Each structure stands twice: as C-alpha cells, then as structure tokens.
C-alpha cells in the first residue's frame, strides 16, 4: 500500500467508494429484475414481448461496453463510474414506468447503455484500487455486488408485503443508489485515484509495436473466452438449478429453491474468501483448481440420485466459480497500454456468456433432457481449467500473483 498515513486513508476511502459502486449496481439490477412482472402488467405486454425488452437491454449494455473502455483510458475509471452509476439509478424507472411496449423498449435500451458503462467502469476502478493495494481484493468487490442484489431483493419483498406501491419502491431505490454513488464519489473528489494505469514506461519504450499490439489482443481474446465460459456456467446454474432439482429429482418447488440458494450462498462466501487464497497460491491456481472443482460439482449434480448429494454439487460449483471472473478481470485490467479497452472487451464477452448460457441449456434440454444439458457448463468448466494460465499477471504489475 501507500507509504504515508494520508495516502493510506485516501486509498481506503477510494476502496469504500468502489464498494459503493458495486453495491449500488447489484441493488439496481435486482430491483429491475424483481419488478419486471409489474412492468409487464403496466405496459400490457406478453411474455415474448418482455423477452424482447430484455434483449434490447442486453444490446444497449453490449454497445456501451464497446465505447466505455476507450473513455476510461482517456478520463479515468472514477469519472466514468460516477457518471454511469448515477445515470443507471436515474434511468431505472424509465422502462419500469413505461405504459406501452415501444416506451419499454426505448427505456430498456437507454438503461442498458448505463448498465454496460457502469459494469465496465466499476470493474476498471476495482482493478485500479487492487493495483495500488498490491494484493488481491477484486473478488471481495464482487461479493459486495452479491450483497447489493440480496439487499435489493429484500427491499422489494418488504415493500410488496407491506403494500407499498411499486413505483414508490423503485423511485426510492433509485434515489438511494444515486445518493450512495454521488456521496461516495465526494469522498475521493480531491484525489487522482481511479485513473487506469497504462503499462510501465519500460514496456512503452520497448521496440516492436506491431508485436505488442498483436500479443495483448490475442491474450484479451483468451481472457474474454475465459470470462464467457465462466459466466456461461454461472448463468446456467442461476437459471436452471432449481428447475433441475424439480424435474430430475422430483423435488418440490420449496426444496428445489434450496439448489439455487446453495449455489448463490457458496458464490457469495467464496467471493469474500478467495482473495486471501489468491495471495497465497496465485491467481492461476485459483482459476485452474476452482474450475476443476466446478466441473466436479456439475458432474455430481448430473449423476446424483438424491437432493442432498445434488446440493453438494451445487456447493462445489459455487465455490469453484467464485474466484474465476475476478481474476480474469484483474488480468484484463493489466493488459497493455489501454487497459480500459481490454477490460471492456472481456466484460462484453462475459456478458454474452451469462446471457446466452441459460438459453443454450434450454435448447439442449428441449432435444435431450435438462440433466444432460448440464454437460454444457461442465465442459465449459473443464475448458476454463485448461486455459487458466492466461490470468497470470506480469510480476512488475502484481507481485502477489504467481503462476503455477
């Protein structure tokens, strides 16, 4: 960390600010998801039309991810995270208050743009903080995101149970998140924290610019594929774990929910634990052995004859996947002289994975069975174990991360 107490305090404040970004992001996304039925009823749209709205939101996010990286490299991650995080809060109710399908589509697109920019910029800010701490802390930020999603869900549940109008709920959450982001940003307004750090001067002075451009681009692609496969597995578990327990094992909806709950709980615990493990054994080993554990967990799920054994499989999957994406993002944020662009591409490919994974499982299950379809994320986990070496960060940028 920094040398003086003042610098240490500033860095701690910046870390708290990034935590606020992640918590707000999770709370806004969960609020959006929980209130989708209200949007469907208010706008009088079908389930298929609601699916179109979600696809448009995804398209807006992917578009924003492509240009936000370059913006981060120019003005810094903090500025982009503050603006996009605030915009995300202010735009939440644009689609949720729509009265027609066209209004919902337009609202979802602009909200999606804010979501995409916020996703890339807050991860870029997290990479910047982690670099200055000189030890792994990325996974904990993602744990804060998980807490934010739970908090948003609980607030919605409390609001519905007490009869609070849905509009009042979403406006209140949006206002709270906007205040959190802006308030946290004020804590670090006089510091230069959050600027994406380019490659060291020694690297910039090395000859061979053509090779330098090609090598990072290939590494970014492999990191993106790693994020894609990891989030494909994660999205598959999020959307299909409960239904798998009901269809394959004949569990009740209540017991089936235990499968989902086990996976999510394991992911959250793992995210708050994995940073210490990375500091001891290195990022490569965490991704490699974590992916292997995830594959083993899915193998147990597909072969298990009873729910208790299946829950062990989902537990292993959650713990195994917990550290993968944070390490991929850390590695992407330390690639080349334009880390923002690299990070935006990796986040974008990962986003495609979490969107397409559940759909792929659904199509495979349609022609086979849901149990057989889970072989897809199992293979993805195996592939992640094989390419785990790509997350190794050069020694000059991360002393703590040693390749296996």
Automatic annotation (TrEMBL):
Residues spanning the membrane: 12-34, 46-67, 79-98, 104-127, 139-160, 166-187, 220-238, 250-274, 342-365, 371-395
Record SUPFAM superfamilies: MFS general substrate transporter
Location in or out of the cell: Cell membrane
Key words of the record: Membrane, Transmembrane, Transmembrane helix
GO MF annotation: an example: transmembrane transporter activity
Record membrane topology: Multi-pass membrane protein
Entry-linked Pfam families: MFS_1 (PF07690)
Assigned GO CC terms: plasma membrane
Residue ranges of the region described as Disordered: 193-213
Basic and acidic residues composition bias: residue spans: 193-207
Ranges for domain Major facilitator superfamily (MFS) profile: 12-400
CDD domains in alphabetical order: MFS_MosC_like
Name of the molecule in the record: Putative major facilitator superfamily protein
Species name: Mycolicibacterium arabiense
């Amino acid at each position: 960390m920094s040398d003086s107490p003042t610098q240490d305090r500033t860095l701690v404040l910046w870390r708290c600010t990034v935590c606020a970004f992640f918590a707000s992001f999770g709370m806004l996304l969960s609020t959006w998801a929980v209130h989708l039925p209200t949007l469907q009823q208010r706008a009088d749209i079908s389930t298929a039309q609601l699916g179109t709205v979600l696809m448009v939101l995804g398209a807006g996010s992917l578009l924003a991810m492509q240009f936000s990286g370059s913006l981060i490299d120019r003005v810094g991650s903090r500025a982009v995270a503050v603006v996009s995080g605030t915009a995300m809060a202010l735009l939440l109710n644009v689609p949720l208050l729509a009265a027609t399908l066209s209004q919902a589509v337009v609202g979802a697109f602009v909200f999606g743009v804010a979501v995409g920019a916020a996703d890339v910029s807050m991860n870029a800010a997290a990479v910047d903080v982690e670099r200055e701490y000189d030890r792994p802390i990325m996974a904990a930020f993602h744990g804060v995101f998980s807490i934010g999603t739970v908090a948003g869900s609980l607030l919605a549940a409390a609001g519905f149970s007490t009869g609070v109008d849905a509009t009042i709920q979403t406006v209140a959450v949006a206002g709270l998140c906007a205040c959190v982001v802006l308030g946290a940003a004020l804590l670090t307004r006089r510091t230069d924290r959050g600027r994406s750090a380019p490659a060291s001067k020694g690297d910039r002075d090395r000859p061979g610019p053509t090779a330098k451009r090609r090598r990072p681009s290939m590494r970014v692609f492999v990191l993106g594929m790693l994020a894609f496969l990891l989030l494909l597995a994660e999205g598959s578990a999020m959307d299909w774990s409960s239904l798998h327990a009901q269809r394959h094992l004949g569990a009740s909806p209540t017991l089936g929910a235990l499968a989902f709950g086990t996976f999510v709980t394991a992911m959250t615990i793992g995210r708050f634990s994995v940073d210490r493990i990375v500091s001891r054994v290195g990022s490569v080993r965490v991704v490699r052995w974590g992916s292997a554990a995830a594959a083993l967990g899915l193998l147990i799920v597909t072969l298990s004859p009873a729910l208790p054994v299946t829950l062990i499989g989902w537990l292993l999957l959650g713990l195994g996947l917990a550290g993968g994406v944070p390490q991929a993002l850390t590695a992407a944020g330390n690639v080349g002289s334009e880390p923002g662009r690299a990070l935006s591409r990796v986040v974008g490919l990962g986003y495609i994975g979490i969107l397409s994974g559940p759909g792929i499982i659904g199509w495979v299950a349609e022609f086979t069975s849901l149990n057989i379809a889970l072989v897809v994320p199992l293979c993805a986990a195996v592939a992640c174990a094989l390419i785990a070496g790509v997350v190794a960060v050069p020694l000059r940028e991360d002393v703590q991360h040693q390749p296996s």
